[in-house]
Amino acid sequence: MTNALPPLHNGHAPITLQQLFREAIYAFEEWNAEMAEPFVTFEGKFLPISAVFEAMRGCTDIVPANVVGSVTERLTKPWQGEGPLDEMTFQTAARVMGVLVRKRLHANGGADLAALASRSAEAEHSQR
């Protein structure tokens, strides 16, 4: 499903993908625990937020400070980066958010539903 998103170039994400990542975090923040995984739109396509986080797992760009706060406030341990200013990469943020999505889906019993929806979307895309 991530092939619907622009690719990374040598570990760098296009600005459109970085903005979509931010939208996915906002959708996660608004996610009511009893609801299905939220979607974001990109070029007229609806994508689950987990697809956006997965697409950014290889991105080495630094996350803006306001987005770092949205990620770190969900951690159970304090964030300590390796950089001089404790910078966080999109790669790290994407991994954290991916885990949080999977935990919420699992807690809701929705992991099976999300997997089914993902397989269905992949099958539809391969038929085109």
SSE layout and pairing:
Elements: H1 15-30, E1 39-42, E2 45-48, H2 49-55, H3 65-72, H4 90-108, H5 111-126
Antiparallel strand pairs: 1-2
Largest sheet, if any?
A: 2 strands, antiparallel
Rg from alpha-carbon coordinates: 15 Å
Order of helices and strands: HEEHHHH
Count of β-strands: 2
Q: How many domains, in number, for the residues?
A: 1
Shape descriptor reads: globular
Structural class: mainly alpha
Distance between the termini: 13 Å
| Uncertain residue segments | 123-128
Number of alpha- plus pi-helical segments: 5
Percent helix range: 40-55%
Strand order of the largest sheet: 1-2
Can you tell me about this structure?
The protein has 128 residues and is mainly alpha-helical. It has one domain (2-126). Helices cover 52% and strands 6% of the residues. It has 5 helices and 2 strands, in the order αββαααα. The protein has helices at 15-30, 49-55, 65-72, 90-108, 111-126, and strands spanning 39-42, 45-48. It has a two-stranded antiparallel ribbon with strand order 1-2. A hairpin with a 2-residue loop joins strand 1 and strand 2 (45-48). The longest helix has 19 residues, at 90-108. The protein is globular. The two termini are 13 Å apart.
